[in-house]
Each structure stands twice: as structure tokens, then as C-alpha cells.
Amino acid sequence: MAGPDRHRRGRRRAKKRASIAGPLALAAVLVLGAGAGYAAWHKSRASEGSARLGTDSVPATTTPPAPATTADGDRSPSPTPTTTSPKPSKKAAKPTASATTSAPPASVPKHGTGYFTVARASGAASGQGTIRRYKVEVEGGISLSATDAAHEIAVILADPRGWTADGHDGFQLVSSGPADFVIKIATPDTVDRICGAAGLDTGGEVNCDVGATVVVNLKRWMLGSPEFDGPIAGYRALIINHEVGHRIGHHHEGCPGPGKPAPVMMQQIKGLHGCVANQWPYDSQGRYISGPPVA
């Protein structure tokens, strides 16, 4: 009896352990499954968060460079690529005056270096008869191109209303070799020094003709004369024609009458006395514009 009873009691204990182990195993499975699911969910959230953090930590656009400083010191925005040409700024659209149309300066320097630069310019002779070779020199320390001045003077002396209209006088601009006379453009103080050495009083205002030198006052070249109501180019023609007129033997003349053109040999800067300002020795018909001689 003892043997069968032990076997029955053993089977009952095994069933009891099995009935307990089943729920425990299921609980363990549920716990493990829940842990694995949480781990997977947490990993997914962490990856998503890192992705968002990574996106937010990188700027969507790079910071544009600092705006460039323009030459005038104003700040201008950096250029952006575009398929059309940018509109020009108002400043760029404004026309700039050329050297020939700009107003004369309010003042000119009184002093220069006292040394002269020969214009490196030459040209063909104009006129007939006696051809006088001439050079153009400009004093240092002033804002005037010797070459530009020489070309302007050459145009004046070659004009058909100039001294070549007489058929006996001609001129040729040269930059080297012998010359019959020299045209110097100098500051007022230098003009006074050169002209004063010959006993002439130019007072820092006017031009002179000394020996083989025509001395042009920079003040008159740049500012003209209050007695001359034409353009500055016209007054420069008067200066050259008057002084070169002395070179070829002409003397001062007076006003021929009210309303008539002033002779180029008239000292127009001292007043027109009823005449009309004029810069040419001859009119367009080739007639000499004369006046009474002045002692």
C-alpha cells in the first residue's frame, strides 16, 4: 500500500507544480515581451529625437557675408544671383561732365615748381609763307596736361579765322629740336617773375610776351576774363592769338566802334569800350578785324 500511495502523492505534487509554473511562465513571457517592446519603442523615440535635433542644429541657410564697403564708404548689400541684369544705381546713372564741358575752377594755385614740362606733341605745319616752329611747356605742380594744352593751342593756331588767314604766316607744333618761340603756361607768381625780369608788371593777373617766349597766366587760362562772355575755349583762343600776334609783328589796337567786334590785338581784359568780345584776327569771310592803333 505504501508504494502506490507514494506514486499517487508524487503525481499530485507534480500537477500542483505544473499548475503554478504555467502562470508564472506566462507572466515571465509577458514581462519579457513588454520589456522588449518598451526597449524597441524607446529606441525608436530616441532615434527620432536625434534626427530632429540634428535637423534643428544645422541652419537652414548659411549666414550671408558682411556687406561690401563701396568706394564712397556707403554700405551696399551683397549681390544675389539673378537671371536679369541689376538696375544701375542712381549714382551710376548720373552723367559725368567731361573736361570740355565742366565749369572752370573757382581758383587756381598761385605757386608752381618753377620748372616746365615740354609737351610731347607735334603736328604738321598749318598756313603758308613763314612757318614758325613752336613748343608748349607747362609749369610743374599744377593739374594741367602739357600734351592736352599743346593740342588745344595747335587747333587755335590752325583755325582758318586765325593768323594763317593772311597767307603769309604759318605755325608748326614741335616737341624737340629748334623752335622760333615757346608758349609757357605758368602760375601767377611765376608769370610775374618771368615778365618782371623784362620790366613788365603783370600783377599776378595777365599774360606777357618776352623775347622768344609767350607767357600765359594759368589764372587766365583756367578762369577766363569777366570782360569775355563766351566759353573758356574762346578766351583761350583770344590769349593765344593776341600773344602770338605780337610774335609776328602786330601791336595793340582799340575798339573800332560800338557794337563792332573787338580786334584780337585789343587788350579786351581792360574793357571792351562798346565793342563785342571776339577771339579771332579774321572773320569768317577772311577780313581782318582791325581797330585804331594804341600807343
Structure description:
By secondary structure, this protein is α/β, with parallel strands linked by helices. The chain has a domain at 116-249: Collagenase (Catalytic Domain). Helix content is 35%, strand content 12%. The protein is built from 6 helices and 7 strands. Helix 3 (146-158) links the parallel strand 3 and strand 4. The longest helix has 56 residues, at 2-57. The termini are far apart.
Beta-strand share of residues: 5-15%
As for the CATH topology of the domain at 116-249, it is Collagenase (Catalytic Domain)
**Which H/E pattern describes the elements?**
HHEEEHEEHEEHH
Share in helix: 25-40%
- Average pLDDT: 74
Identify the CATH class of the domain at 116-249: Alpha Beta
CATH architectural name of the domain at 116-249:
3-Layer(aba) Sandwich
Number of helices: 6
Main beta-sheet annotation: 7 strands, mixed
What is the terminal-to-terminal distance? 180 Å
Instruction: Work out the number of β strands.
Output: 7
Question: Any low-confidence stretches, pLDDT <50, length ≥5?
Answer: 14-103
Descriptors for this entry?
295 residues, alpha/beta, Collagenase (Catalytic Domain), seven-stranded mixed β-sheet, globular
SSE topology sketch:
Layout: H1 2-57, H2 90-93, E1 116-118, E2 126-127, E3 130-139, H3 146-158, E4 169-173, E5 181-186, H4 188-196, E6 208-210, E7 213-217, H5 218-223, H6 232-247
Parallel strand pairs: 3-4, 3-5, 5-7
Antiparallel strand pairs: 1-3, 2-4, 6-7
